[in-house]
Structures are given as C-alpha cells and as structure tokens.
C-alpha cells in the first residue's frame, strides 16, 4: 500500500516563483486572501500586514502621480474578471509602491486577473498575477531620449574625444558620448541623472568648481594633464586628461549659459611616458653623478662638453671648464699623440679602450683606463667615455710582481721544500728545492702527483689524512718520509697554511716540507737511551730495595748484640761511665742507619708510586688531619697554627702525596723552631692563573742564602740538633714536580722561612 501524502498547498503557493495575489471577489474591497513571498519582497510588505485587508487599502494610489493609471486599471481588470468570468490582461501600467520613508517609488507593472470557479461554476477567487517591469520601461524611455539627444548632437558624439553636456545647477548629464562613458567607466543609464550622483567619485576632484565657474562666468576654461582618480577593474587609478570646458547655451538668444559643454582628451600614456623619461633621466643623472668613475663627452674638436663630478675631481677642476676647456690640457704630454689618434677613431664610429696618464690642474698625476664609444649628435659624432683611475691598481700590480718575484727568490732559496695548492688541495706550484730533492718535474707532480714520491707504507694514510684536512680549512701538519732523487727516503715535517679572504673562504694553501731525518734519528737514539736509563733506574731501585731489605737483618742482629753487651757489662762499675758512653754512640749509629734504610725504602716507593691517581682533595680537612697526627710535637713546642685556605677548597692531587707534602712542611717548621721565641705557623692557600698556591710560613731558625741552593738535595741537612735524614724536602719536590707543579723557598736566617707549593690546576676535573 502507498502511504497517503498530505500537501501544504499554502506553503507551495507562498514559495512559488513569481508575484501572485489571491483575492476575494467582494467588490469594491477585494480582500487579499494570499500573497506570494516574491510579491511581498518586491513591494516591501509583511504577510501579517496584508492578508485580510483590501487590495486598494494595502496598495493605495500615489496622489502626486497624475499620470499613474495603475489603481484604475486594476479595478477595471478585477471587475471584468468577476462579471465576465474571463482572463483579463491589463496594459502596462504605472503603479507606485510605498517606500521605506513613507513616500512613493515609481514602479511599472504587467499583470492579469484570472477568475477561479468551483465545479458548479461558482466564483471562488481571483488570481492576480503581476510582473515588475520598471527597469525595462525606464531603460526603453532612456534609450528613446538618448536617440533624440544623439541625433541633435551627432556631430560632437562622433568626435574622437570624451564629450558631454552638463546642464543646470544640479549638473544634469544632458549628453555623453561613448568616450566620456569610458572616461568614467559608466553606461548610458547615467544620462539624465545629476553628474555627482551618477559618478560620485568625480565630486571631490575639482570638477564641481570647474563647471560652476564656466556656467556662472560664461568664460571658457581649459586645463592640461589634469589628474583624475577613476575606478578601473575595481581599483582606483589616476588618469590624465586635457580638458576644455565651454559655456553651453540651450537657445541662441540666451544671455546666460544653461550648462557646460566639456571635451576631454586622455593623455595618460603621454604623461606617464614623459614622467618615465624624466624619472629615467633623473636616475641616469644620479647614477652618473654617483659613479666613482669619470664619465665624459668630448666634442670632435676635443672640447670637454660634459664631465661628471668624479671626473672633475680627477682633473682637479670644476663645471666652469665644461664647453670651454680642451681635454688635451690634462693629458700627459707623452700620451697626447696616441690619445688624439684614438679620439679621432672613436668620432669616426669605432669603440676603443686604452690607458694613458693625466696631470690634474693642481699637478697630480694619475694613470687612467678609458672605454670610449661614438655618440651621435647635431655636430657629428662625439666621444663618450667611461674612464677610471687605475693608479692604485697599477701600483698594486707592480708591487705584486715585485712581491711575487721576491717570493720566488725566497722560496727557491730556503732549505725547505715548498708548494702551493688550490682550495681543494690540488698542488700547482713547487719551489726548486722540491724538484732538486725529488728529481721530478712539475708535469709529474702537478695535482696529486706527489703521491709518487711517498713511501708505499705511508701513502694511503697520508692521502686519507690530507683529504680530510683540506675540507677543514684549518692549518695542519704531518710527518712522513719522502723519496729523494737517489731513491732513499728521508723524514719530513709538513705544515700547510690556509690563505683565506675576508669572509674566511680558503683561496689557496701554502705548504712547507722540513727535513727532520736527523731529528728522527736523534729521537730514535734518545728513545734507546731512555729505555736504557729506565732499565738502569729499575735496576738501581731493585738494588736499593734489596740492599735496604738485606741490611735490616744484620742491623737487627747488631742491635740485639749491643743489648746483650749492655747487660753483660752492667756490673763493671769502674768502666761504667765510659762503657755507657760508647754503648750510647753505638745505639745512636744503629738508629741513624735504620732511618737511612727506611728513607731509601721510601724513596724507592716514591719512584714506584709516581703514577698514583689524582683526585679532588679537600685541603682544609687534610690539613686538620695532619695537625692531629702531629699533635704531640705541636704541644711539646707550644706552636700556634693559623689556617687560611678557604680560597682553595679542592686541590686536584694525589691525596697520599698531598698528605706527605703538608706533613713534611709543617713538621719541619716544628723541628726547626727557634728557642728564643714562641713558634707561629701560618698555612694559607690562594688562586693564581693555572695554579693553587699553598704557603707554609714559620718564624723559626731560617736558612742561610748559601744553604737554600742545596735545600732540596737528597741527604742534605743543615742542623744537627734535630733528627732527620735530609730526604724529606727532596721527596716533596719530586712529588710536586711530578704533577706539573713546582716549589719555592724564601728564608732569612734567624727570622723564619716560607715554602710556596704551586699545584697545577685541572679546571675540568674541579668543575
């Protein structure tokens, strides 16, 4: 089964395209029962204000439109449709519509009225169909009026100019030909309308004042190249016109003009072309004046017709010379003959370039290079030239030639082999030393031919290295053997220097090869010597270690025997004092012997432990630990210690060795204290570029200037009243220097001593 559909006929009627009214046949009111959306829109009405009201109430007659026949014709049409039950076709009528301001707007309509009956012949409705044809009627009437005007002024309209007639104070467009319409990009529908209403963009461009002046004074007015803003393809552009405005008299007997007859001729292209020429000339003149070269025009007779400022400065003259002076006045005497010959050739139609000297009016001599061409003129061909001062270039070329000659002499007489390469590393020049040593020629060596004189065992690594080195653009060096003319290989140190421009771009490479064969042999010999010394040192260390180890047992035995002997002789009263003294000397000797053996052992350990890894050591904590170790000695000597090491929180050094350094320096200060005063010890540390400087200062016995020279020598002691082996400071110096530092001493005998230890910084490790 098909589902039954329900249609909304009222909606369909309202939305149908076209202007329709459904009227009730209740004359004379003719109530509006329905109205289409399109008619509502055309007559600016709302459906709720229309439906249910009489048609003549909704659309009243315009009382001011005497010629309007719309309401009368509509009433007659509806009456005919009701009475005769026929379709009534109305003639075209004017039926004005109320506008938004409450006035009336002229409208023209084409309409018909159709009676609608039911199946029994009863009249139910009248369907009124209408069409707004206002635009067509107005266009047709304008066309008719325009044809009349064109017929009257046909002679003007055919002129190849923009022609128009503007009448009255309202500036009504009475006539306008096609050129004038194109002038404003308008169509013929502007005819009959006020000028500034039809063409509003013309209002503020001076035309109103121009028209009023001609109409009021009766005098003609003309203006050339008048700028006018027009809309072209949606963009505002400026056009230029020559305009003539004459008074227009509608009748020959009129005393005052009724309007203005205007003729306009577009000269935009001419004006723009003239402006382009003027701008081009101005630019050319500016370029000529700004050009740092001499630009001149010389007449066939040699008169200076024109010369720019730069040229006048070159000849040390001014503009008063132009048209009067001869160019030959500033040409150097020895160059005048060839200059005159070339000048004649240029004036005959040839282009030439040559060099010559000038002597300025103030005596300055310059070398010039000129490029001259013929220039046609009223007096025949003249000489147009661009001349530049090449004095510095010539001087530079001369200097360069001399420099190159000096370089060649220098390069060919140095002991080194020398060469030059392009930015990519292709060698294009060698000095004579190269060819003499290698026995080759430039043809063999050019480019990468140098590979032929490299040792087969090294050439691949050399090529790989230099290929990468060329790309870096930085100076590089390398050692390798080169084959001589005798077939033997010798070692060379090669250095390559990049010659760069101001932007850092490599222009060329300059390289030297320095013979280091003797040095290589010396290095090999030195290496052998070092290995031999290393073996000797190792043997010596082993000997010392073995000797000190082997001597410990006998010394211990002697020490035991002395103890037994002391016990045996204890009862010999008559020898007691002498024996006791001798035994004391023996015991003292044994102790010194033991300390010496211990020091030798420590020295060997120092040699073996020289590679102890460095770490970040807290200096303040380490000093406090050392002072705790020395506390008995410190108390015994009543020493006062002052510590200021905040500037050196961390020292990069072997912790064990740093402890030995501090312990030795502080314990020495205690050992060599003066009995005449209280012992004061000051430990400080401060920064210097590249170093941490540890200072240990005391007010002890001090060291004489003579003894200071031997202070760090092994087994040197300058005071016998304290125990020691004379090896402590030697070991301190050895440890400090082994890590890249050094130690100094400043002392005055009887006043005190200052030791300064310079520890090499390692910034990376301490960060």
Automatic annotation (TrEMBL):
Reaction it catalyzes: ATP + protein L-histidine = ADP + protein N-phospho-L-histidine
InterPro entries per UniProt: HATPase_C_sf, HATPase_dom, His_kinase_dom, HisK_dim/P_dom, HisK_dim/P_sf, PAC, PAS, PAS-assoc_C
PANTHER family the UniProt entry points to: PAC DOMAIN-CONTAINING PROTEIN, PHYTOCHROME-LIKE PROTEIN CPH1
Source organism of this protein record: Pontibacter ruber
Enzyme Commission code: 2.7.13.3
Record protein name field: histidine kinase
SMART domains (alphabetical): HATPase_c, HisKA, PAC, PAS
Residue intervals of the PAS domain: 403-473
Coiled-coil features, chain-numbered ranges: none
């Amino acid at each position: 089964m098909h589902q039954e559909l329900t249609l909304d006929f009222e909606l369909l009627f309202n939305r149908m395209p076209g202007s329709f009214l459904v009227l009730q046949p209740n004359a004379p009111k003719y109530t509006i029962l329905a109205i289409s959306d399109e008619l509502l829109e055309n007559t600016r009405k709302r459906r709720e204000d229309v439906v249910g009201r009489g048609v003549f109430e909704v659309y009243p007659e315009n009382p001011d439109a005497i010629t309007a026949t719309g309401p009368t014709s509509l009433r007659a049409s509806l009456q005919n449709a009701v009475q005769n039950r026929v379709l009534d076709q109305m003639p075209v009528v004017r039926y004005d519509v109320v506008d938004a301001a409450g006035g009336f707007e002229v409208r023209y309509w084409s309409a018909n009225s159709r009676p609608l009956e039911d199946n029994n012949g009863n009249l139910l409705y009248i369907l009124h169909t209408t069409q707004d044809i206002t635009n067509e009627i107005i266009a047709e009437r304008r066309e008719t009026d325009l044809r009349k005007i064109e017929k009257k002024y046909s002679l003007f309209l055919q002129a190849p100019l923009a022609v128009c007639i503007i009448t009255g104070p309202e500036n009504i467009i009475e006539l306008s030909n096609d050129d004038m319409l194109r002038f404003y990009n308008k169509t013929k529908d502007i005819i009959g309308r006020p000028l500034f209403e039809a063409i509003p963009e013309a209002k503020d461009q001076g035309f109103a004042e121009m028209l009023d002046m001609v109409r009021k004074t009766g005098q003609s007015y003309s203006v050339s190249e008048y700028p006018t803003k027009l809309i072209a393809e949606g963009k505002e552009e400026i056009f230029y016109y020559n305009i003539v405005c004459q008074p227009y008299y509608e009748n020959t007997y009129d005393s005052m003009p009724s309007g203005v007859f205007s003729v306009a001729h577009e000269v935009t292209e001419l004006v723009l072309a003239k402006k382009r020429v003027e701008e081009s000339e101005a630019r050319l003149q500016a370029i000529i004046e700004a050009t740092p070269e001499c630009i001149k025009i010389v007449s066939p007779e040699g008169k200076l017709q024109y010369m720019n400022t730069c040229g006048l400065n070159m000849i040390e003259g001014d503009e008063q010379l132009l048209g009067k002076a001869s160019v030959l006045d500033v040409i150097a005497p020895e160059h005048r003959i060839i200059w005159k010959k070339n000048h004649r050739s240029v004036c005959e139609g040839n282009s030439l370039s040559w060099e010559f000297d000038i002597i300025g009016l103030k005596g300055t001599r310059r070398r010039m290079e000129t490029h001259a061409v013929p220039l046609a003129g009223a007096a025949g061909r003249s000489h147009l030239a661009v001349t530049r001062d090449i004095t510095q270039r010539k001087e530079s070329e001369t200097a360069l030639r001399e420099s190159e000659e000096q370089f060649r002499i220098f390069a060919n007489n140095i002991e080194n082999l020398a060469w030059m390469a392009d930015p990519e590393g292709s060698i294009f020049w060698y000095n004579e030393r190269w060819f003499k040593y290698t026995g080759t020629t430039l043809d063999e060596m050019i480019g990468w031919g140098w590979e032929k004189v490299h040792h087969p065992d090294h050439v691949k690594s050399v090529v790989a290295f230099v290929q990468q080195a060329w790309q870096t653009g930085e100076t590089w060096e390398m050692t390798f053997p080169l084959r001589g003319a005798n077939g033997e290989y010798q070692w060379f140190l090669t250095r390559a220097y990049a010659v760069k421009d101001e932007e850092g771009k490599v222009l060329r490479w300059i390289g030297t090869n320095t013979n280091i064969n003797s040095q290589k042999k010396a290095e090999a010999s030195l290496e052998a010597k070092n290995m031999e010394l290393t073996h000797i040192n190792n043997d010596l260390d082993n000997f010392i270690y073995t000797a000190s180890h082997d001597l410990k047992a006998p010394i211990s035995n002697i020490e035991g025997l002395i103890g037994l002997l002391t016990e045996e002789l204890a009862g010999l009263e008559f020898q007691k004092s002498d024996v006791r003294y001798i035994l004391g000397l023996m015991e003292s000797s044994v102790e010194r012997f033991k300390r010496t053996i211990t020091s030798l052992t420590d020295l060997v350990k120092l040699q073996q432990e020289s590679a102890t890894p460095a770490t970040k050591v807290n200096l303040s904590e380490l000093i406090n630990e050392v002072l705790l170790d020395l506390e008995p000695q410190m108390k015994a000597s009543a020493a006062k210690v002052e510590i200021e090491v905040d500037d050196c929180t961390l020292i990069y050094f072997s912790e064990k060795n740093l402890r030995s350094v501090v312990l030795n320096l502080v314990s020495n200060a205690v050992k060599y204290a003066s009995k005449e005063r209280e012992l004061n010890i000051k430990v400080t540390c401060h920064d210097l570029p590249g170093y941490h400087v540890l200072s240990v200062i005391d007010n002890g016995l001090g060291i004489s200037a003579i003894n200071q020279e031997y202070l760090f020598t092994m087994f040197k002691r300058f005071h016998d009243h304290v125990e020691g082996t004379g090896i402590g400071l030697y070991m301190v110096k050895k440890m400090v220097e082994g890590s890249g530092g050094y130690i100094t001493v400043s002392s005055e005998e009887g006043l005190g001593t200052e030791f300064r230890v310079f520890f090499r910084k390692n910034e990376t490790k301490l960060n």
